[in-house]
Amino acid sequence: MPAFAALSAALHVALLGVWLDLREPIPEVDIHAAATRLSLNLLPPQPLESPRPRSEPDPDLSFVQEKVGSDPIERSPASAPRHSTVGSDPIHSNSMTGEEKLGSDPIERSLGPAPGPSFESPRAESAVPSGFDPVRPKSAIVEEDLGSDPVGPVTAEQLAVRVHEAVQPYFEYPLLARRQGWEGEVRLMLRVEADGRLSVLRVLSSSGHRLLDRAAVEALDRLARLPDARGLPHMGMETELPVRYRLVDPA
Amino acid sequence: MFFLPFPRRAGVLLAAGFVTAFSSFTQAREAVVVTATRTAQSADQALAPMVLIEREELERLQAADLGEVLRLHAGLDIGRNGGPGQATSLFMRGTDSNHTLVMIDGVRMNPATIGGAAIHNLDPELIERIEVVKGPRSSLYGSDAIGGVINIITRRAAQGAQADASASAGSHGSNRFAAGWSLADGDFRYGLRASVYDSDGYAPLTASPIEAGHERVSLDAHAGGRIGALDVELSHVRVSGNTEYVDSFTLALLDQDFLNTVTALRLEATPGSTWVTRLRLSEIRDEIDQNQGVDFAHTQRFAVDWQNDVQLGRAQLLTAGIELMREEADVVSFGSGFDEERDIAAVYLQDAIELGAHRGQLAARHTDYEGFGSHVTWDAQYGYLLTEATRITAAVGTAFRAPDQTDRFGFGGNPDLAPEESRNVEFGLRHRFAPAHGVALQVFQNDIDNLIEFDFIGTGGMTNLGEARIRGVELGYDWASGPWRLISAATLQDPQLRSGGQLPRRAKRSLTLGIVHDAKRWQLGADLLATSSRRDSGFSDVILGGYTLLNASALLRLGDDWTLRGRIENLFDRDYALADGFRTGGREARIELAWRYGAGTR
């Protein structure tokens, strides 16, 4: 079967080529420089639960440093999340964004197993507060989070809510990570310009798996711009975004 | 815990590929949580129909061996020449008994001498999980994977120190004592487990009152750790013992010693963030030595498997590997024998793609066998998510079985035999009505050519003669509510030789149903197994009658560390046969006391 052997060889070469190609855009950056850079920034308090924390970012991920100060190219994915400002039914909790998403998540709902002692369902992470209304559009909640004065300056917390809301549809769980059972939490420091442009300044702490760190950075790259830029100071803002990758046992 | 395999299986199949991201935002700075379903260890078989049997289910069944576990799943027919330790054949999806590849932690254990893997020697005490993947898998695993693949995953150390022990007793003078210890500390892990089983057995032959006993010692040891960027693990599984049997012609009580070992060294590294490379060196032995004569059958196989998984962009996972094997088959049977060694080399490539609602998988493997040349197998699978709760799949794939050394050099042997070849086409539909309530439907047609048979009329030896077509429908249903779990599977199949006649020992209809009520302190369960009639062999007109069996299980948790289990097999003492001329065990009772300490304690 020479044809097959040739095909196999070609695919192996292609594979190697693609792999090299994948590595190519990641410039090697001096780890000491990265560490110095990191030390100049006050780290926000560590979250209570941080699996496999790392004291310093992975050198391979220092490519995100390149983005500092650079002008990110704006990319508008066809499936950009809708963001409407219509309909702002008042709601008295600014903690609803995640719950809303959670409650309306058809996958976990429809595929998760029955409640059982061993099932680590993400649903278990926080209870849905009373007054929760799954019908309300997300935008209403974000709107509420911004307070009654939408043109007023945005607080760090409000910005974090907005970022959370906007980035969710962009995350993927890489196939290789799923095959390998890789999990972990990566913490990113983001910069949001006055016009909503978004860039990853650096990885504050790695998930322990470079592929996951990279997937998180790439998800934010795809978002490129925050849909709602109102109230952002003209000098821009920085915010921290922890992204936790978790595998759940099938039903 | 979910002890029923089917709900897990349905979850794997349907949920695999779903990724959800949501923010749990009760406080600022909380994480965006990205979740996905854990995939099975049998490479990436997310699109293939699969049965997962978990540890808790194995404990509930208190089975003496793997054969007793597998028979409770529709579409897995069992032929058995008597009680514990007696030769057991597995027919998956209507294919032959040597058409199922059985692996221990990914290492092939099928013998090179003759027949299928010795599932009657495998003690469930060593097993953490069983993954049964149905359909052709030769494009990844090579020979024998025509009906499917069974990957047995042994128990591994969880974080911390753990220990457990159990003692059980049952009908026919059966006893088992098992103990295990494991420690995982930081980067290192160790585990040791032993199980001693013995049974007086019962009279296997209907023609003789002589009982045939069985005893075996099963051991599993592993040690692993992270050394720099490399994960290294050395493991050894060893099952040895003695089985008595009654000679069908002389009715004399004979016995044989057996040995099955799997030794493996695994190295794994992640050289780039998107590339995982694995090297596995393994050796297996499968030995039977007859104690009243000189007959024996020995297989020894060395294998090197180098597998690479590469994430390509966002949506593709490429798997490429090389497998090299050298197997020696040394047999003396009825005074004549052979000692043959052969080399096998293979390259394989698989690409899994996920794009929106589409799932695809392409795989191909080129296997070169010293003896008959090379063989190419391929496999294409496609899945589409109609909704987030409904998935349809289509798959076509080829598989093969290389002639074993008995086919080639045994009685009537023919060294020029070609491999048996199959082509399978199937469609599947899965839907979940609710989180704990779902159905699965699978329709398949498997055409197998070049079946190796003894040609009484023409060549007077082994010849690529037979052709078979197996068409089947598999239906699965699972439901859970509060403390209740129910799982049911039904198979309707038509395993036919193209020349006419139903393939022996394979039922056209089988139904299995398991129901369990799990309260905190206790658990009650029942298993139903119903099977239609089967032909006993291709050489006789004997029909083995259909039968329905009901088994019951009970569990009582005595505090945190102790558990008492009981089980009654064949509650209504039904008289049935798995092979003509051989008995089955009648009503059997088992009781077990188990102790568990450490992280795994409930």
Any overview of this molecule?
The complex is a heterodimer of chains A (251) and B (602). Chain A is of the alpha+beta class. Chain A contains 8 helices and 3 strands. Chain A has helices at 2-23, 31-39, 96-103, 106-111, 138-145, 156-167, 175-180, 210-223; strands at residues 184-192, 198-205, 237-248. In chain A, a hairpin with a 5-residue loop joins strand 1 and strand 2. The longest helix of chain A has 22 residues, at 2-23. The radius of gyration of chain A is 20 Å and the shape is elongated. Residues 15-60 and 62-149 of chain A have low confidence and may be disordered. With 602 residues, chain B is mainly beta. Chain B has helices at 5-15, 55-61, 66-70, 138-141, 405-409, and strands at residues 19-23, 32-37, 50-54, 76-80, 88-92, 100-104, 107-108, 127-134, 148-154, 160-170, 174-185, 188-199, 214-227, 230-246, 253-272, 275-290, 296-312, 316-333, 336-355, 358-369, 373-387, 390-401, 420-434, 437-454, 462-481, 484-497, 509-518, 522-531, 534-535, 543-544, 547-558, 562-569, 588-598. Chain B has a 22-stranded antiparallel β-barrel. Chain B is globular. Chains A and B meet through helix 1, helix 3, helix 4, helix 6 and helix 7 of A and helix 1, strand 1, strand 2, strand 17 and strand 18 of B. Strand 3 of chain A pairs parallel with strand 2 (32-37) of chain B, so a sheet runs across the interface.
